[in-house]
Fold this sequence. Notes:
Number of domains: 1
Largest sheet: 7 strands, parallel
Order of helices and strands: EHEHEHEHEHEHHHEHH
Number of helices: 10
CATH class: Alpha Beta
Strand content: 5-15%
CATH topology: Rossmann fold
Shape: globular
Structural class: alpha/beta
CATH superfamily: NAD(P)-binding Rossmann-like Domain
Strand order of the largest sheet: 3-2-1-4-5-6-7
Amino acid sequence: MTSIVITGCSTGIGLATAKYLQDRFIDVYPTARRVEDVEMLRSLGFANAMQLDVTQPEQIAAVIAAVVEKEGRIDAWFNNAGYGQMGAVEDVPTELVREQFETNVFGLHECTRQILPVMRRQGHGKIIQHSSVLGITALPFRGIYNASKYAVEGLTDTLRLELMDTEIYPVLLNTGPITSKFRDTAIASLDKIDIDASIFAEKYHASINGTAKRVPFGEEADAVARVVYEILSHDKPKPRYYITKATYLLGTAKRLLSTRWLDRFLLQV
């Protein structure tokens, strides 16, 4: 039976993917940063749920050791943990940029770095990296999140080249708008910056009050879960999967439009 570790399962995509895979007889090891979320996962029937804060290398090592001891291997690792920091580039303090990268980039990198020796020893594995449509295109007021996902893209593209002679497959997921608490958490992150002192104060308040434009073509979290299951079902998965129509639309626009026309288009999204 296939085994997979999933980070960031307290809600949204991580939780939905864990449920979807377990229903299909995958050995799922869902993880969450907070103890109360681990208890919630166990109450839902995930006996293998474990605590994992991806910014803590010793916790990553402990999860890997526990799963290997029980299963003898780890077939797949889904780096799903992450969050969004909203705000114009000029308004977000550098300390918040560091916090964003600690989880979205450095935590993902540490998980990847620690799972690779296991997969090399066993001779196979799949490392699923949760990027975003914002890993291939930019949107205003998402610059810090954009930067973190662009970093994930660069790390994974390079890793794929370095693993070309192995049976270890890094896979990028470019998700668009998914129904979850992600957007609410991102809007709440505006509390960390001085929005009233910003030239963009009106736009910030529009986002907080729910009057800002929303990206169309949203889908439920199961859309991601289905793709993860597809990846697990194939010996040689594709290196990249677009998820949601918004990703296909923006990805196509990036390929076809000049930079100037793309910028004009993105400002309308």
